[in-house]
Design brief:
Blueprint lengths: L1 H8 L12 H9 L17 H12 L33 E6 L7 E4 L5 E4 L3 E4 L5 H13 L8 E7 L3 E5 L5 E3 L7 H7 L11 E8 L2 E8 L9 E4 L5
Parallel strand pairs: 6-10
Antiparallel strand pairs: 1-2, 1-5, 3-4, 6-7, 8-9, 8-10
Length: 235
C-alpha cells in the first residue's frame, strides 16, 4: 500500500524553457541582429512550448527602413522682362536705383506732364524715352557736380493702365501686364456682354506722334495706355 501511494504521488516533470538572455531582448526592441541563443535547459523530455518558442525566434526578421525620398526643389520664379524699346509715359511707375546712394534710390511715378522729380537734380523728362535713355540722362545730370561716378538703373515697376469700354461686363481702367491682347483685355473686364460684337473691336493707341484708331481682330496685341472699344451688334 505504501508503495502504491508513493507511486501515485510521483509525476514526471514537464519541459522547462529558459527565458532568452537580455541581449536578445535588446535586439528585439531596437531591431539589431539577434545574438545566438544558448540551448534551453530542459528538465525532462522536449515539449510543444519549447518548439513554439524556438520557431518564434527563428522566424523573426529584421526589416530595414526604407530610404528617405526628398522632393526636388521648386525652381525660383523668373521675373517678367519688359521690352527694352518700351517708351515711357505718364502713369508708369519706375524703380530708380542709384548704387551707393540709398537716399536717392526710390520708386518714382511719371506725372501728367511726362516727368519725374528726383532729389538734387529736380525734374527729369521721361515721356517718350526708353528706360535705358532715361538712365543715361539721370547719370549725366548726377555727374554734373553731384556724384563723381554715378551708376544708375531704371526698371519698370508697374505699367500705366489700359482702358476698355463698350459692351463688356465691367468697363473701366485696368493694370497692364506684358504680352496682353485684345482678347485677354476683354477677359479681364469680365467678358463680352450679350449684345457685344465679338469678331472685332476698335483699338486706339496714343504715342508721341498722336493717336491712331483702327478696327482690329481679337488677337491684336495692346500696349499700356491703349483704349479698347467693344461695339454693339445690330442683330
Amino acid at each position: 500500500m505504501t508503495a502504491l501511494a508513493l507511486a501515485g504521488c510521483m509525476r514526471r516533470a514537464g519541459p522547462v524553457a529558459a527565458a532568452p538572455p537580455p541581449r536578445d531582448l535588446d535586439a528585439m526592441a531596437y531591431g539589431g541582429p539577434p545574438a545566438p541563443a544558448p540551448a534551453p535547459v530542459v528538465a525532462a523530455g522536449s515539449g510543444g512550448a519549447l518548439a513554439a518558442l524556438r520557431a518564434g525566434f527563428s522566424s523573426r526578421r529584421v526589416v530595414a527602413a526604407a530610404p528617405a525620398v526628398y522632393a526636388a526643389p521648386m525652381p525660383m520664379p523668373v521675373p517678367v522682362a519688359y521690352d527694352a524699346a518700351y517708351k515711357l509715359d505718364a502713369g508708369d511707375r519706375l524703380r530708380i536705383v542709384i548704387y551707393g546712394q540709398e537716399g536717392l534710390t526710390n520708386t518714382y511715378s511719371i506725372d501728367a506732364g511726362g516727368s519725374i522729380t528726383l532729389p538734387l537734380i529736380g525734374s527729369v523728362p521721361a515721356r517718350g524715352r526708353t528706360p535705358a535713355g532715361l538712365s543715361a540722362d539721370i547719370t549725366a545730370r548726377l555727374r554734373n557736380g553731384y556724384i563723381r561716378e554715378p551708376s544708375v538703373a531704371v526698371e519698370i515697376e508697374a505699367y500705366r493702365p489700359f482702358f476698355i469700354l463698350g459692351e463688356v461686363a465691367a468697363p473701366g481702367q485696368y493694370p497692364y501686364v506684358p504680352n496682353m491682347s485684345v482678347e485677354s483685355a476683354v477677359a479681364i473686364a469680365g467678358g463680352f456682354s450679350p449684345r457685344a460684337r465679338r469678331d472685332r473691336v476698335t483699338l486706339t493707341h496714343t504715342d508721341g506722334g498722336g493717336s491712331v484708331r483702327a478696327v482690329v481682330p481679337l488677337g491684336t496685341p495692346i500696349n499700356p495706355g491703349d483704349t479698347v472699344l467693344v461695339g454693339e451688334r445690330w442683330f
